[in-house]
Amino acid sequence: MADITPRVSERTGKTTYQARVRRAGHAPLIKTFKTKAQADAWARTQEKEMLDGKPILTKEKERFTFAVAIDDYAEHVGYDSLTEKYRFGQIRDDMGDLAVVNLTAEKMSN
């Protein structure tokens, strides 16, 4: 269920619209837009993706990139060999900025 709430800035007096999408089994999503139409469109898209079972990209998930995952692995597990360290370094260089939630077989094969 999505709620659209108008918000008026005390400083500028401009109205923005905050969309909140809540579904059982998912973290709530909140985003602010300049127009109500943008907020409605975003909320509908997010609800459809939740129903379709697609991964929802939150700010927290967006920040969890391959580089972060590889750095965590190196810190907590370590590398067994220089070859493994080199291979993880190559992956970090090639896909380090990719959010893990956006991983697809197509992106892995490139």
Structural features, described:
- The protein has helices at 36-52, 59-63, 66-76, 82-95, 105-109, and strands at 2-8, 15-21, 29-33.
- With 110 residues, the protein is an alpha+beta fold.
- The chain has a 3-stranded antiparallel β-sheet with strand order 1-2-3, with helices on one face.
- α3 runs antiparallel to α4 (82-95).
- The longest helix is centred in the middle third of the chain and has 17 residues, at 36-52.
- The radius of gyration is 19 Å and the shape is elongated.
Keywords:
110 residues, elongated, alpha+beta, 3-stranded antiparallel beta sheet
Q: Strand count, sense and closure of the main sheet?
A: 3 strands, antiparallel
Give the N-terminus to C-terminus distance in angstroms: 38 Å
Q: What is the ordering of alpha helices and beta strands?
A: EEEHHHHH
Structural class: alpha+beta
Care to count the β-strands?
3
The average pLDDT score comes to 83
Range of helix content:
40-55%
Taking all Cα atoms into account, the compactness measure Rg is: 19 Å
- Report strand %: 15-25%
Low-confidence runs (pLDDT<50, min 5 residues)?
none
Instruction: Note the total helix count.
Output: 5
